[in-house]
Structure formats: structure tokens, C-alpha cells
Specification:
Elements (H helix, E strand, L loop, with lengths): L7 H4 L9 H18 L2 H4 L8 H4 L6 E3 L4 E5 L2 H6 L2 E3 L3 E2 L13 E7 L2 E9 L7 E5 L18 H11 L3 E5 L6 H17 L5 E6 L2 H9 L2 H6 L2 E5 L5 H5 L10 E6 L7 H14 L5 E7 L5 H5 L2 H9 L3
Parallel strand pairs: 2-12, 7-8, 7-9, 9-10, 10-11, 11-12
Antiparallel strand pairs: 1-2, 3-4, 5-6, 6-8
Length: 315
């Protein structure tokens, strides 16, 4: 069934569009250049170079407000599934995929104190400049985030972005996504941070995987190790955020959600975002809504380059 575009942010009263994505990308480029020239915050962290941006960047027009903190991204099943996939929702067209990262793929078992944790990785496991760990949702495993062909090739792009930046991309078996599984994943996160020193560590969580991620982050050593959190079609609340002990250093958070998600309602995540902003307007949090998107849309449609660059240099 096809759905007409309704303007998700307009329906909930967020306001008028401030510009299209082309102008938004120009602003980001200029800000990065200014930061580099002045030796400021933008020069302090790595930036992610383009990779197939013409295929994966957000389709225009993108409505934005609050300096790009809120984005309303248009989504169309006819365009973003039918014209993108050779087999809809099963195999993306070949031009979206570059299999080079798979040459470094490792399937591993981490000896966590509470039991073995199966995980997989690609990229530089010796001197990673950046680490991204993906946690699947219900009924998934480590293979989901390593699949090059599903979700419109978006995981393949993520693998390429991270490995070309000299980073390490990893996925885990989250099991039932409960407390015991969160303890194992937390142990892996601590180990990765300990072995890779100053490399920024980003935690990306799909759907119910967000429950595991919030649980893992409740440990003070883990929350201090993680440098950015991405929640794709997940659930959040202020109590969970308050349990994160960061010693005054806020955790950058990006929320991505489909406007017609029937698993976790968009309005609940939007309320969390607005609550954080009311309490602290300077808090580094961003909300990306895929207008007319469903529960799985953020996994397919999130622009990983835009996301990682924002997490590395939140503003």
C-alpha cells in the first residue's frame, strides 16, 4: 500500500521548513571548514569522507528547524524500495554496494565474564580511528548489521564509511536483548574502548535493541566509554537518560523514526527529544523523522555519513 506524503513535522506543529537539504549540506561544509581553520571543535574529531552520497543522502526537500536539530525527511516506498532494490526488501541494486570491507571480516567470540558473546567486525582492529557498534532488534543477530544487500544496502555503506575512515565496525548477538545480554555487550564495549584509546565509540541500536543499549549504558564505566548513541525506531525516556553517569559530559544522541511506526510510536520519541531540549537547550540531541516511514524505515534510510559527522561534532 502506498501512502501520500503528509508532512510529519507540520502535522505535529513543529513549524515551517527552513530550507532544503542542499543548503543544509552547504552549511555543514562551511562550519567544518571554519572549525578546521580556527583549530576549534570541528578540527578536534575525525570527519567521515563521502561514499556513494548521491545514492544514500537524504532525498530533497528536507524540512528542518532548530539549526538542523530536527529534520523531516521525505520517504516513498515506490522510490526508496521499488526503484532501489532488485528484489524489494531482499536485495538492493548492485550499484549501491561495494564489498571491499568484507575482505577484513572476522567472526569472533568475546569471552565476557557472564558468558561468551558472538560478534563480527570489519576494518582496523589494531589502530581504529573510530568504532561503530550496531545492536540488532528482536529476532536478529550479528549477521543483520553485516548484510550488504538488505535495507537498501545501508549497512554496506556504513561498513565502507567506517573502514575507509580507518575505523572498526562491529555487530553483536544481542540474544533476547535482556539484562544478561546487555552485560555481555557492555563488557565488549569496555574492551573496545580500552584497546583503542581515544577512538570515538558510537553505539547504534535498532528497534528493541535500544532496550539493550539503554541497559548497558546504565553502567557508569560504559556510559563514559561511549561517545555517541543512535536509536533507530526505538524507545527512550528521561529516566533512562538520567541513569547515564557522564560526570557532566553529555552523551550525543540521534533519534531516527518513521512517522507511522506502529511498534514504537513516533510521538513518544518526539516527546523525549522535546523534554531533553526543554531541560537543557544546549544538550546535543537530534531528531530525524522519515515522513510516512514505518518501523524499519530508519534502518534503510538513515544517512550514515551525515549521522556520524554530527555525532563526532555535535552542534
Amino acid at each position: 500500500m502506498r501512502h501520500a506524503r503528509n508532512g510529519a513535522l507540520s502535522r505535529i506543529g513543529i513549524g515551517q521548513a527552513e530550507g532544503i537539504m542542499a543548503g543544509y549540506r552547504v552549511v555543514l561544509t562551511l562550519l567544518a571548514a571554519i572549525g578546521t581553520a580556527n583549530g576549534g571543535a570541528f578540527a578536534a574529531s575525525p570527519t567521515i569522507a563521502p561514499f556513494k552520497d548521491e545514492l544514500f543522502a537524504y532525498p530533497e526537500p528536507v524540512a528542518s528547524r532548530d539549526g538542523g536539530r530536527v529534520l523531516d525527511v521525505p520517504y516513498s516506498e515506490a522510490r526508496d524500495i521499488d526503484r532501489r532494490d532488485e528484489i524489494p526488501e531482499r536485495r538492493v541494486a548492485r550499484r549501491y554496494v561495494d564489498l571491499a570491507p568484507d575482505q577484513t571480516r572476522r567472526d569472533l567470540v568475546f569471552p565476557a565474564p557472564d558468558g561468551p558473546l558472538r560478534w563480527a567486525s570489519v576494518g582496523d582492529d589494531a589502530r581504529a580511528s573510530l568504532i561503530v557498534v550496531f545492536v540488532h532488534g528482536r529476532n536478529g543477530d550479528r549477521r543483520l548489521g553485516m548484510n550488504d544487500w538488505t535495507f537498501g544496502g545501508n549497512f554496506n555503506r556504513l561498513k565502507n564509511l567506517v573502514t575507509q575512515a580507518g575505523g572498526l565496525y562491529a555487530t553483536v548477538d544481542g540474544g533476547a536483548l535482556g539484562a544478561a545480554d546487555a552485560t555481555k555487550v557492555a563488557a565488549l564495549l569496555r574492551d573496545l574502548k580500552a584497546r583503542h584509546g581515544e577512538a570515538p565509540l558510537m553505539l547504534a541500536c535498532g528497534s528493541m535493541g535500544g532496550e539493550l543499549c539503554w541497559t548497558a549504558l546504565a553502567g557508569s564505566d560504559v556510559s563514559r566509554a561511549v561517545d555517541g548513541l543512535v536509536l533507530l525506531g526505538g524507545s527512550s525516556d528521561m529516566a533512562r537518560l538520567d541513569r547515564i553517569e557522564r560526570e557532566g559530559r553529555p552523551l550525543p544522541i540521534l533519534l531516527a523514526h518513521g512517522s507511522r511506526d506502529k511498534v514504537y510510536a513516533m510521538d513518544a520519541q518526539l516527546a523525549f527529544f522535546e523534554g531533553v531540549r526543554r531541560r537543557d537547550p544546549r544538550y546535543p540531541i537530534r531528531f530525524v523523522v522519515f515522513d510516512d516511514g514505518n518501523h524499519g524505515t530508519p534502518v534503510r534510510m538513515i544517512d550514515w555519513r551525515d549521522t556520524l559527522n554530527w555525532l563526532l561534532n555535535p552542534h
